[in-house]
Amino acid sequence: MIAGLRRQRAIVIAALALLTLLGWWYLRAAPMAMPGAGGVWARGYLLASFLMWFIMMVAMMTPSVAPVVLLHDRVMHRGQPGWHRRTLAFLLGYFIVWAAFSAAATLAQSALIRSGVIDAMGVISDGRVAALLLLAVAIYQWSAAKTACLDRCHSPLAFIVRRRRGPLRDLRAGLAHGSWCVACCGALMLLLFVGGVMNLAWVAGITIAVTIEKLVPR
Predict the structure, then answer these.
(1) What is the mean pLDDT of residues 114-118?
(2) Contact 172, 166 (CB under 8 A)
(3) Rg (alpha carbons) of the chain, rounded to whole number
(4) Which of 63, 164, 53, 64 lies closest to 98, judged by CA?
(5) Confidence at residue 122, expressed as pLDDT on a 0 to 100 scale
(6) Which long-range contacts (CB under 8 A, 24 or more apart) does 73-77 make?
(7) How far apart are CA 91 and CA 87, in angstroms?
(8) In whole angstroms, what is the distance from residue 120 CA to residue 61 CA?
(9) Nearest to 95 by CA among 172, 158, 170, 174
(10) CA-CA-CA-CA torsion sign (84, 180, 154, 214)
(11) Which of the four pLDDT bands, split at 50, 70 and 90, describes residue 79?
(12) Cβ(95)–Cβ(166) under 8 Å?
């Protein structure tokens, strides 16, 4: 039994590590989508931008959600048949929320490029606008709303236990945790428009900040 649980845990950790590595490989290898003849609202550009944003969110958020996935796995279905499907359902729910965030970020990026606020590389053109965004994010970082969301991220056991029963319980738990994570970390993701959407050093810095923030209590 114990050996089986250890094997289950090792499989989950290896899968999450592989998912993270594949995401970072894509970010390093794939060129940033550039507007073509159809402009920023062309279907091909929107699809490529969404794919970039979503894979970037997967690469950035998987390290910090890994402990919650392992906790969910241990509390909900340790050693039970079908545990892998339930773990996948939790991750699916979690990343559905980040897919919605990625869709919103894609539309915002196209609108901002069209209006001239950011350039084709996803960088804010006006230093004053960048300063205002930095100030807004800083204010949110120290707000009561941010603290409440972060508390949920630091203590996920309660919402996991509340969803122990019922249809689609694992999917619903993933959706719930993903929603709190977007509320907690979404503002930090907007800083990508300051340093550059595909600036890997900037992406890595935000990833480290998010991971520390979510895993280390204030």
Answers:
(1) 91
(2) yes
(3) 18
(4) 53
(5) 87
(6) 73/8, 73/9, 73/12, 74/9, 75/157, 75/160, 75/161, 75/164, 76/160, 76/164, 76/169, 76/170, 76/173
(7) 6
(8) 25
(9) 174
(10) positive
(11) low
(12) no
Give the three-state DSSP class for 39. Answer: strand
Amino acid, res. 6: R
Q: What is the mean pLDDT of the chain?
A: 88
Contact 21, 59 (CB under 8 A): no
| Total domains present in the chain | 1
The average pLDDT across 65-70 equals 91
Neighbours of 172 (CB within 10 A): 17
Tokens of 41: 């609202």
Range of the domain at 67: 2-215
Rounded Cα distance, 20 and 141, in Å: 25
Q: Which residues, at least 6 apart from 56, have a Cβ–Cβ distance to it below 8 Å?
A: 23, 27, 102, 197, 203
Q: Are 175 and 162 spatial neighbours (Cβ–Cβ below 8 Å)?
A: no
CA dist., res. 107 & res. 136, Å (int): 20
Q: Band the pLDDT of 133: cuts 50, 70, 90.
A: very high
Predicted confidence at residue 2, as pLDDT, reads: 59
Report yes or no: 76 and 86 within 8 Å, Cβ to Cβ.
yes
